Structures are given as C-alpha cells and as structure tokens.
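From: lab user (bench 3)
To: helpdesk
Subject: output format question, protein + protoporphyrin IX containing FE

Hello, I'm new to running complex predictions and I'm not sure whether the block I got back is the full result or only part of it. Here's what I submitted:
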Amino acid sequence: MLKNSRSSYGSVAKWLHWLIALWVLAAYLIILYLKSQSDAFPLPGLNIHKVVGFSILVPVLFRLYWRATNIQPALPDHMPRWQRRASGLSHGFLYFFLIAMPVTGYLGNGGGVDYGAFRIPPFLGSPVSAWIYDTVGISDSQWDTFFDTLHYGIMGPWLFWMLIAVHAGAAIWHHHVQKDDVFKRMLPGRNKK
Ligand code: HEM
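Helpdesk reply: Thanks, we reran it on our side. This is the complete output you should expect:
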C-alpha cells in the first residue's frame, strides 16, 4: 500500500521518514567528523556536508507534498488532548527545522554548494542579498553572523538535536509504556487496512 490509511502510514511515507532520518544523521556525522579533524574555517571537506545538507530539501519537500495530499493515520483514543497537541506541535517544529537547517546553512555561507557537474551559487554577495542589506540597513557581515549563529550556534548543536530526542523519546514511550502501535505503524512492513 503506497498511500496512508486511517490506521497506518503507507510505504511512501514510511520510506521518506527513515530516508530523511538517515540523511539528517549523515549531515551531522559528516560535520562532526570534519570538526574532529580540523579547526580551520572553512573546514576542509565542508562541501560534502553542504551537498548532503542542501540535498535533503528534495525528500523533505516531497514529504510535505505527500503529507498534504494523503490522509493522516489517527492517533490512539487513549491519548489526552495535551499529548495530541504536543504531537502536532513537535511534528510542525521538526518540519520547520528540516527546512531551516539547510536554508540557514546556505544563507550564511559564502561558498555556494558544489555538486561537481553544477554549482549552486552563494546567496551572500548576490544582487538580491545586496538589495536586502540596503533595505534592512545591515552589513553583509551582520547577515552572515546572524545565519551562522542560527545554523551552527543554536539550531544545529542544540535545538534540532533536542527536538529529535523528544521525537525519538515519544516513539519509545508509545512502544514500551503505552504499548500502542504509534511507533510500529511507521516501521517498513505490512500495513493494516
Ligand atoms: C539538514 C541539514 C543540515 C544539518 C543538520 C546541519 C548541521 C550542522 C551542524 C550540527 C554544524 C556544526 C555545529 C557545531 O559547530 O558543533 C554545522 C556547521 C556548518 N554547516 Fe551545516 N547543517 C545542514 C546543512 C547545511 C547546508 C545546506 C550548508 C551550506 C550550504 C551548511 C553549512 C555549514 C557550515 C558552513 C558550517 C560551519 C562549519 C565550520 O565550523 O567550519 N550546513 N551544520
């Protein structure tokens, strides 16, 4: 079953979920490895992190489209209202970070993203960025610092990780404490109708 049903996710949503999870992990492992090897800026090999991190937008945008055009499996009846709200809120934040991480990384970096066969030019230094600096009344270094602070000062090492931990913790709690099928229905395999 490709599409979601009222009781389970379809295979497209499941594979997108685990693919994106591994993709995020890869972006993290690459940058952590590079930082463990050198303190230079920019880090040697940084482009690998940028290519992996920027490309995540493709499955993330497709997943948002798939979510918008599919029904969502219902949450178990035993869940109180605050948990339903918390679940909706945390999923909203996860999507926000899945877009904000690549976007802030790109906006704060002057090197662009080099795919070998083609290159995405940097936003920093572009005519649009010059227009924004003029309109808002900031310098390019203030812009750079703002997005760098968001990307690798606040969101990357703290907020995004904490959110992922809450998300994974909730899945484990559903599986082991509530013993419902909230976690199981996201695992690849056969679906209930
Ligand atoms: C899902 C996507 C991404 C994730 C999860 C991610 C995560 C991170 C993390 C955790 C750090 C290091 C934080 C630390 O210093 O401990 C980092 C640094 C960095 N990222 Fe990303 N990133 C992503 C996408 C991107 C993209 C698309 C670009 C640029 C096009 C980018 C450019 C950078 C740069 C320039 C650094 C600083 C490296 C240094 O310290 O030399 N990132 N990122």
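A quick orientation on your result: The two ends are 9 Å apart (CA to CA). Let us know if anything else is unclear.
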